[in-house]
Write a structure and sequence with these properties.
6 helices; 9-stranded antiparallel β-sheet; alpha+beta; 26 strands; 17% helix; elongated; DNA Polymerase III, Chain A, domain 2; 8-stranded antiparallel β-sheet
């Protein structure tokens, strides 16, 4: 194998593919990137046996077909540290050579035949197509609320729920829940689809789409796997992932239907007030008290041996009786970060009932209150 690559394009591909490799494994081949040069295209692939990524690199000159299995960490370090406009990658048996203008690195790789296969999107039946910007928004508005390590394994992922062209994505960690809605641009399968996609896969998917939000994303859902194709032609990427086993909790039962206190905030005003009130909290007292009156919201926080904070925000058209409630400020700020609109509606019921943040019908966020002494 011998290819001449534009370093900037190569670095972008290497960074993406290397994020898939297993970090803790006794198998060295799972810490490698498989590089294949064939028919004028350079393809890079990696998998940790749960998530797999295959992508094509543009701006390459393939001078000899072939393949190599290269340790991901060394490949990333070499490409990142280079200052050359182009790099030449060649291989002989299992030894890889990377050459720049004034550098030559020799890496001892592995037999490419030992690399676990990474699925091609063409092997699956397409379910639907989603605009890249819509998919990125849905992931952005839910991923932050997913559980990181939870004994209820099903909530460690994000629910992918498609009914016709209507798509909902839902995430929860048991203390908060985020629901985002969007539309598919086309649907191939008339059957509705509901599955749980791992957070790692969706995080990587949003990063692959981020730089070109106009790119269509093709989706295929199978019994145990989901496959995504981002883009087309030589610059496309195929992402495959095992689905999370288990049943997602009945989230619709968690969303309150009888909130009788409502107020609309400017997102930036509310975010600033919450962040400032959170300055005087600590692990023992990390709640912020929100006191809603007729025309004023007062935010109070207190940390023993540290001090107290009080922030006031004028209210416009507050509906309902006054109420006093406590929230983890980080949970509120997390939601406000992913809202692109100018305003957000806050809905409440009582001090011991969950609060709801909404932006139209596209985003709903439920957060449990905290007890404040």
């Amino acid at each position: 194998m011998k290819v001449i690559c534009e370093r900037a394009m190569l670095l972008e591909a290497v960074n993406s593919v290397s994020s898939v490799v297993a970090t803790r494994t006794p198998s060295p081949v799972l810490q490698c990137v498989k590089v294949t040069a064939s028919e004028g295209v350079l393809t890079m692939a990696a998998t940790d046996l749960e998530v797999g990524l295959r992508l094509s690199v543009e701006e390459v000159d393939v001078q000899a077909d072939g393949e190599a299995l290269i340790p991901a960490d060394k490949l990333v370090q070499i490409v990142r540290s280079s200052e050359d406009a182009t790099l030449t990658i060649s291989s002989e048996d299992h030894t890889v050579h990377i050459r720049g203008k004034d550098s030559h690195f020799t890496i001892y790789g592995y037999d490419p035949k030992e690399a676990p296969p990474v699925r091609d999107f063409g092997e699956a039946a397409e379910d639907c197509e989603i605009d890249g910007s819509t998919l990125t928004m849905l992931v952005h508005r839910t991923l932050f609320a997913a559980a990181a390590e939870h004994s209820r394994y099903a909530i460690n992922g994000i629910l992918f729920d498609r009914e016709g062209r209507n798509l909902r994505m839902v995430a929860t960690d048991g203390r908060r829940l985020a629901l985002a809605r969007g539309q598919c641009t086309s649907v191939q399968d008339r059957e509705n689809v509901k599955c749980i996609v791992p957070a790692k896969a969706l995080n990587l998917l949003s990063r692959l789409v981020r730089d070109d939000a106009d790119t269509p994303v093709h989706v295929a859902i199978e019994e145990n796997q989901a496959l995504f194709r981002i883009g087309a032609g030589t610059g496309r990427a195929d992402l495959s992932t095992n689905l999370v086993e288990g049943t997602f909790p009945p989230f619709e039962d968690v969303i309150p239907k009888d909130q009788d206190k409502k107020v609309t905030f400017d997102v930036e005003v509310l975010r600033s007030a919450i962040k400032r009130a959170a300055l005087l909290t600590n692990e023992e007292s990390k709640g912020v008290r929100l006191i809603f009156g007729d025309d004023m919201l007062t935010l109070k926080s207190r940390a023993p041996e540290m001090g107290e904070a009080e922030i006031r925000v004028d209210l416009q058209r507050y509906e309902g009786e006054p109420v006093e409630i406590g929230f983890n400020p980080g949970f509120i700020v997390d939601a406000l970060k992913v809202i692109d609109e100018e305003n957000v509606i806050v809905e409440l019921k009582a001090a011991n009932k969950p609060g709801v943040l909404r932006t139209g019908n596209d985003f709903t966020y439920v957060v449990m209150p905290v007890n404040l002494q």
